[in-house]
């Protein structure tokens, strides 16, 4: 789900691939706050390097996602993934192709396809232009991440889920991995449980539109990183 700086929730929006208005500036400012408040692993760290490699594999091309109103592009070099030293399972994106994934996501995942689904969902927020200023208005903060609000709009979560299905299958992962990944993420209050059920139902409705693919074997990188985290 998106992470929004509380002081930067509204701005004007103009279309440009998936970057809107002052999205680049806002993402930069939010990243600086995250780096100050959270134990973010560096790009050279093994966990961040694994996530970056997996994200690059998922990076969609225009030919894959040229559907409907979605703003699409072929800029895989602009995706940036970083791991956060936190054993709770969580992931959030901040715009400009930046996504943060906690160690807990990898620890909770049974296979690499489930991690790929989490990354694909966050990429879906970017591809659906959810960081445009006028899109922020639909979000209601659901929890705090440091001094930032992690926001939830179930309609946009379902939209990102739908984008994730296309991203996953294009990369050779089963679309059903998105369902498995949602089941692994925390849902501790009645509202989030209701939202989860809506997302699950929407995914069940969409899955017949995708080929049934087997879950591919997880890479050696997934096994190595998960073993590393289990020792820490």
Secondary structure elements and their pairing?
Blueprint: E1 3-4, H1 23-37, H2 46-58, H3 62-65, E2 80-84, E3 91-95, E4 98-102, H4 103-108, H5 112-127, E5 140-145, E6 148-152, H6 154-170, H7 177-184, H8 190-206, H9 220-231
Parallel strand pairs: 2-4
Antiparallel strand pairs: 1-6, 3-4, 5-6
Could you describe the 3D structure shown?
- By secondary structure, the chain is an alpha+beta fold.
- It is 47% helix and 12% strand.
- The protein contains nine helices and six strands, in the order βαααβββααββαααα.
- The protein has helices at residues 23-37, 46-58, 62-65, 103-108, 112-127, 154-170, 177-184, 190-206, 220-231, and strands at residues 3-4, 80-84, 91-95, 98-102, 140-145, 148-152.
- Strands 1-6-5 form a three-stranded antiparallel β-sheet. Strands 2-4-3 form a three-stranded mixed β-sheet, with helices on both faces.
- A hairpin with a 2-residue loop joins β5 and β6 (148-152).
- The longest helix is centred in the last third of the chain and has 17 residues, at 154-170.
- It is globular, with a radius of gyration of 16 Å.
- The two termini are 27 Å apart.
């Amino acid at each position: 789900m998106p992470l929004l700086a509380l002081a930067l929730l509204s701005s004007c929006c103009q279309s440009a691939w998936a970057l809107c208005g002052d999205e680049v500036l806002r993402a930069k400012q939010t990243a600086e706050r995250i780096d100050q408040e959270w134990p973010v692993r560096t790009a050279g760290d093994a966990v961040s390097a694994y996530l970056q490699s997996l994200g690059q594999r998922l990076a969609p091309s225009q030919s894959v996602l040229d559907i409907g109103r979605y703003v699409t592009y072929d800029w895989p070099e602009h995706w940036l993934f970083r791991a956060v030293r936190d054993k709770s399972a969580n992931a959030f994106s901040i715009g400009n192709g930046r996504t943060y994934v906690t160690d807990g996501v990898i620890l909770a995942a049974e296979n690499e396809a489930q991690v790929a689904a989490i990354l694909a969902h966050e990429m879906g927020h970017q591809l659906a232009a959810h960081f445009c200023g006028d899109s922020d208005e639909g979000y209601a903060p659901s929890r705090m991440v440091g001094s930032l609000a992690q926001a939830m709009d179930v309609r946009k979560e379902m939209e990102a889920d739908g984008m994730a299905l296309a991203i996953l299958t294009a990369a050779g992962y089963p679309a059903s991995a998105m369902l498995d990944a949602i089941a692994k993420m925390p849902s501790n209050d009645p509202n989030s449980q209701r939202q989860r059920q809506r997302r699950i139902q929407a995914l069940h409705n969409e899955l017949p539109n995708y080929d049934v693919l087997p879950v591919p074997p997880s890479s050696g990188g997934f096994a190595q990183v998960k073993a590393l985290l289990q020792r820490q």
